[in-house]
Amino acid sequence: MLNLDFKVSGDITKALNNFEAGITQSILWSGAAAGAKVLYDELKLNTSPEKLHKSEASFVGPTQPTPGQKTKTLHESVYRVGSRSRTTDKIKTYHVGVNKRTARHWHLIEYGHWQPYRAVLTNRGWVSLKNAKHTRKWIPARPYIRPSLNVMPKAIEAAKRRMAQRIATRDWMAEAMRP
Hints:
Layout: H1 12-46, H2 49-52, H3 57-60, H4 73-76, E1 78-83, E2 93-98, H5 106-111, E3 113-115, E4 118-122, E5 125-129, E6 137-139, H6 152-169, H7 173-177
Antiparallel strand pairs: 1-2, 3-6, 4-5
C-alpha cells in the first residue's frame, strides 16, 4: 500500500487560475504579434518608394522625383504596436498603420486628391507655385493600406501557426510560472 501526503500552503485554486491566465495571455499575445507582423510587412512593402512610385513618370514629369521618393516619410512612418487599452483577457489587439503625425498627407496618396497648384521640387523641398498658371489636376489614388488587407488570411494563418508552435514547444511554461 502507498500513502501520499500533500501539504499545500496558500490558495491552490487561485494559483491554478493564475497559471491558466498566464498561459492564455502569453500564447494569445504571441499569436496576435505573428498576425500583425504579416500585415506590417505587407504595408512596408506597399509603401516602399520603389513600389509606390513605379509608374509615376507621368505624375510630375520624368525629370523630377515623385513626392515621398526622396523623403521616404510614408515608408518610415509605418508602425505596429500592441494595444493594452483595446485588449481583453480573450482578445489581444495590435495596431498596424501609418503614423499620421510623421506622414501627415497619407490620405492623399491612399485616396487621391485634387492638386490646385503646380508643385515643384526645390532644394528646400516640395513647393506649391500658387501664382503660376495651372489648372486643377486630379492626382489618382495609389492605395497601399487597402491592398495590404488582402494578406489577412495569411495573417490569421500565421497567428494560428505561432500559437500552435508555442503550445507544442511548451516555451510558455516559464512565462506562466512567473508570479
